[in-house]
């Protein structure tokens, strides 16, 4: 993007915040999908506490797993500008 | 400049543009939720599709939708407090 294309600070700021907000929303949609399959039994009158705990743990562990995978991939992978992924 | 030139937009036009973008985002999110809910609640509630949605299937779907919303909100809260925690630890 050249500087001349983004010259309106108000709009630039708007796009940045909305992008950030939407990234969050997309992750919540995805996590709900995954954790629903992992935790949900037969739908009843309310979310029971066992399911609630399961969903909360599911979200936390999913993030942990993603962080773990990212770290491990970074450690086992050499990043070079000419060849993006070179495994050792 | 061939791309969208924002320098020539008036304040009101800018507001309108931002409102439209926000509305489109809201629609996209509602569609995503609708797709997910339909998929999940169909799987949970309709084992053998009959000639019509019977009463118990409808009840199950209604309940499933409410629980899916609960789950969505819980995930949202959990995720955002995790982000907050990570930020505080930095």
TrEMBL record, chain A:
- Locate the Tim10-like domain: which residues? 14-74
Q: Which residues cross the membrane?
A: none
Query: Could you name the Gene Ontology cellular component terms for this entry?
Result: mitochondrial inner membrane
Q: What is its main location?
A: mitochondrion
For this UniProt record, the keywords arranged alphabetically read as follows:
Chaperone, Disulfide bond, Membrane, Mitochondrion, Mitochondrion inner membrane, Protein transport, Translocation, Transport
Indicate how the chain sits in the lipid bilayer: Peripheral membrane protein
Might you name a Gene Ontology BP term for this protein?
protein transport
Subcellular localization, as worded in the UniProt entry: Mitochondrion inner membrane
Asked whether the UniProt record includes NAD among its keywords, one would answer: no
> Could you tell me which Pfam families the record lists for this protein?
zf-Tim10_DDP
Free-text comment about domains:
The twin CX3C motif contains 4 conserved Cys residues that form 2 disulfide bonds in the mitochondrial intermembrane space.
What does the similarity note say?
Belongs to the small Tim family.
Please describe what this protein does.
Answer: Mitochondrial intermembrane chaperone that participates in the import and insertion of some multi-pass transmembrane proteins into the mitochondrial inner membrane. Also required for the transfer of beta-barrel precursors from the TOM complex to the sorting and assembly machinery (SAM complex) of the outer membrane. Acts as a chaperone-like protein that protects the hydrophobic precursors from aggregation and guide them through the mitochondrial intermembrane space.
Q: How does it assemble?
A: Heterohexamer.
Name of the protein described by the UniProt record: Mitochondrial import inner membrane translocase subunit
The organism of origin for this protein: Spodoptera exigua (Beet armyworm)
TrEMBL record, chain B:
Any Gene Ontology biological process: protein insertion into mitochondrial inner membrane
The Gene Ontology terms for molecular function here are: metal ion binding
The membrane topology noted for this protein in its Swiss-Prot or TrEMBL record is: Peripheral membrane protein
Q: Report the residue ranges that make up the Tim10-like domain in this protein.
A: 20-80
Where in or outside the cell it occurs: the entry states:
Mitochondrion inner membrane
- What are the protein's UniProt keywords? Chaperone, Disulfide bond, Membrane, Metal-binding, Mitochondrion, Mitochondrion inner membrane, Protein transport, Translocation, Transport, Zinc
Q: What is its main location?
A: mitochondrion
Q: Which Pfam families match?
A: zf-Tim10_DDP (PF02953)
Q: Does the keyword Membrane apply?
A: yes
Q: Name one GO cellular component term.
A: mitochondrial intermembrane space chaperone complex
What does the function comment of this entry state? Mitochondrial intermembrane chaperone that participates in the import and insertion of some multi-pass transmembrane proteins into the mitochondrial inner membrane. Also required for the transfer of beta-barrel precursors from the TOM complex to the sorting and assembly machinery (SAM complex) of the outer membrane. Acts as a chaperone-like protein that protects the hydrophobic precursors from aggregation and guide them through the mitochondrial intermembrane space.
Assembly and partners are described as: Heterohexamer.
The Swiss-Prot or TrEMBL note on domains reads: The twin CX3C motif contains 4 conserved Cys residues that form 2 disulfide bonds in the mitochondrial intermembrane space.
Give the protein family.
Belongs to the small Tim family.
> What name does the UniProt record give this protein?
Mitochondrial import inner membrane translocase subunit
């Amino acid at each position: 993007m050249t500087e001349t294309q983004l010259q309106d600070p108000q709009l630039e700021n708007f796009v940045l915040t909305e992008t950030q907000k939407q990234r969050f929303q997309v992750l919540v949609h995805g996590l709900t999908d995954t954790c629903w399959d992992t935790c949900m039994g037969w739908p009843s009158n309310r979310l029971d506490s066992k399911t609630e705990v399961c969903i909360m743990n599911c979200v936390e562990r999913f993030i942990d797993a993603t962080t773990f995978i990212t770290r491990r991939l970074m450690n086992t992978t050499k990043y070079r500008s000419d060849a993006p992924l070179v495994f050792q | 400049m061939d791309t969208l030139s924002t320098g020539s937009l008036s304040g009101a036009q800018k507001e309108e543009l931002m409102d439209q973008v926000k509305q489109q985002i809201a629609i996209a999110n509602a569609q995503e939720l609708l797709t997910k809910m339909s998929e999940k609640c169909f799987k949970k509630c309709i084992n053998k599709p009959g000639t019509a949605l019977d009463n118990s299937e409808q009840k199950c779907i209604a309940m499933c939708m409410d629980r899916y919303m609960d789950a969505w909100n819980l995930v949202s809260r959990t995720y955002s407090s995790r982000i907050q925690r990570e930020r505080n630890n930095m």
